[in-house]
Amino acid sequence: MASVEIAAEHERILREIESTDTNCIGPTLRSVYDGQEHGLFMEKLDARIRNHDRDIERMCNHHFQGFVDSITELLKVRGEAQKLKSQVTETNQRLQNDGKELITSMEELKKCRVQQRNIANTIDKLTHCLPVLEMYSRLQEQMSAKRYYPALCTLEQLEQTCLPRAGQYRFCSIMAENIPKLRTHIRDTAMSQLRDFLESIRKHSDKIGQTAVKQAQLQRSLDSSLSIQPRTLIGRRGRKEAMAAATESDGSPLSEQDSGILDVEDEDDDDDVSGAQELVDFSPVYRCLHIYTVLGLRDVFENYYRKQRRKQARLVLQPHSNMHETLEGYRRYFNQIVGFFVVEDHVLHTTRGLVNRAYVEELWELALSKIVAALRTHSSYCDDPNLVLDLKNLMVLFADTLQGYGFPVSQLFDMLLEMREQYGEILLKRWNITFRQVLDQDNYSPIPVSTEEEYRHYTSQFPMQDPELEKLPFPKKLPFSEFVPKVYCQLKEFIYACLKYSEDLHLSSTEVDDMIRKSTNLLLTRTLSNCLQYAIKKKNVGLAELVQVIINTTHLEQSCHFLEEFISNITNVPPDTVNATKLYGTSTFKDARHAAEAEIYTNLNTKIDQFLQLADYDWMASPPAGGTLSASDYLIDLIAFLNSTFSVFTNLPGTAIDHATLPGKVAQTACMSACKHISTSLMELLLNPEVRQISIGALHQLNADVKECESFARAGPVAGFQGDTLLLAFSDLRQLLDLFTQWDWSTYLVDYGKPTCKYLRVNPHISLALLEKNLAHHFICLSFCFLSPVLPVRRVLTGCRNR
């Protein structure tokens, strides 16, 4: 059984060897060698080989004849093949010989085809590269010519379009690396040019403003001559529209030049004033704006521009410390401000949003506050009315110029009205000096005129209407002194000065008239009044001078309605207009005249006091033995002085006018005042506490002096007194002296208290005091027996006094 299995296994292995590739029989043979039947397997293998050899031999024997025939045929074929080979060789040789030229042509054609392909590729590449090179070359030219905005546009096109088409080349990489550097260079250069522009317009802003002011001044003169034409600024609108149109058409600045400001120093001051904007080349602003817009940095540029202009505005609005010293300082200050806002206004209208209206209005509000503060400070130092007037004209032109550019200037005109008060104060100070000089230089004498020309000269200066004086032959005298026409002319000059300031302030005629009248009233009531008071109160002013002051103020008072008409004529406002301010000249001159009259009375009394100080009475004098006593020397001198003084009053005006200086009124009052003062002073001498004793002889001497005074009063030193009115000034003293000198006490005591009393004006207090002084004298000089009849009188007087 085992042998059968071994035989079957050997058979399987042999089949496997026969059917398997020799490369895979290793495991099969290993299984044979691993077994114990190796010899048996070898035997079977040899038997199988012998069987196969026999099969091969049978097969070969079966096909041998066909093999021989095939060999025979093969030998025949070899001969033919040799022939064919020789023919092919010959043919090939002929073909090779014939194809050499073709091969050469084909090689050449191949090379041409390669060259043609390379040329086509080169042309294609150059088609993409040449625009890059051309554009880069154009970029270099634009950079060299400093045309930065086109250069930036070229750079943008080069980066976005040309370089991507060109492909990856080294020069393209180099160009791509240089593009950010070029952008930075263009941006920095544009910013540098903008800084130069800002510095240049800051430096030349006064020249720009000066041109704009001249332009506005020329326009104002044209408006005054052609008032029917609308107010426009010459060249301004056309310039702006042209600039705006050019900017909108291609989006590029008008100019690519570097200059920010033209050569303004070489501009001629011709009558045909060009626009202020034409002095400025704004291309650096437009260029920088376009460049930063292309770079996507427009906000950065706008913020930088506005910040720098705000800084410049603060510098422009800061006045010099000595600006108030000269008008040129104010003019330069205003020109710089005008130049600044002319530039900003132009930028506002020719750019798209670089500055807006709100920004410009904010700057203008800042400027207004600074300007008003600076003017309020610096104008306060000014004390020259001509400088203030020139400053006012300059401010009006400044305001009109900026108003022409659309800026509100109402605050400036309010400031001008505020300065009007200061101008008025300066005028008052100036005219105060002028009035004092006129008063100091006046001789306080009537003006002598010897010819008709002189007369007309004075009447042209002062409106005097006196038909009686005109009828008098030459030479003759005007009633007033030089002071009157000079003061009247100065009043008119003051009114003209006030009118000059009111011009061009856009005020109505009524407002101008009101301002002039108020200022004139201040001049009359404060300045002229104080000057007149100064002239009246100063030392060494005689009665003749005071009388002449009264005459002068009377004529000036009469001329007040002429001043009213004068103001109405120059303002075209009727004097009877409702709510029109009236001049206070009448009251001013009345007050001055009253002060002069009071000063006359005061000076006269002072002079009388000086004479009375010379009185040297002997209060212990004995009664006169007989004859008539003569008046004291001092009193005789006093009466002579009064007579000469009152003769001066005959020069007072004699026309009937409604005031206190009616013909002789001042003289009458002065005379009555002098007599009363003499009477009162003599009474005070009697009642002087230092005089303790008075004799009857002293009273007789005083009685003689009073009689001299009464003689003076009866003589009528001043006409116009009715009856013995002037004697009433001495009645108290007269009755008192009669009582003592006549020793008429019985009558006094009997009639005391009755209306018909002879000594009605004797005051019991005064009489008792005088009696005591007289009794004191008798106590010393006389015996008691003399006093016995006096004592009852004393007791009665004491009772009267107690009642």
From TrEMBL:
Q: Does the keyword Transport apply?
A: yes
Q: Name one GO biological process term.
A: vesicle tethering involved in exocytosis
Question: What functional role does this protein have?
Answer: Component of the exocyst complex involved in the docking of exocytic vesicles with fusion sites on the plasma membrane.
Q: Specify the species.
A: Oryzias sinensis
Keywords assigned by UniProt, alphabetized? Exocytosis, Transport
UniProt cross-references to InterPro entries, sorted A to Z: EXOC6/Sec15, EXOC6/Sec15_C, EXOC6/Sec15_C_dom1, EXOC6_Sec15_N, EXOC6PINT-1/Sec15/Tip20_C_dom2
The record's PANTHER family line, in alphabetical order, gives:
EXOCYST COMPLEX COMPONENT 6B (PTHR12702:SF3), SEC15 (PTHR12702)
* Protein name in the entry: Exocyst complex component
Q: Which domain of life is it from?
A: Eukaryota
Biased composition annotated in UniProt, kind: Polar residues: 249-258
Write out the transmembrane intervals: none
State the residue spans of region: Disordered. Answer: 239-259
Q: Name one GO cellular component term.
A: plasma membrane
Can you tell me which family this protein belongs to?
Belongs to the SEC15 family.
Keyword Transport tagged: yes
Residue ranges constituting the Exocyst complex component EXOC6/Sec15 N-terminal domain according to the UniProt record: 44-212
- Gene3D superfamilies given for it? Dsl1p vesicle tethering complex, Tip20p subunit, domain D, Exocyst complex subunit Sec15 C-terminal domain, N-terminal subdomain
Positions of the Exocyst complex subunit EXOC6/Sec15 C-terminal domain: 411-773
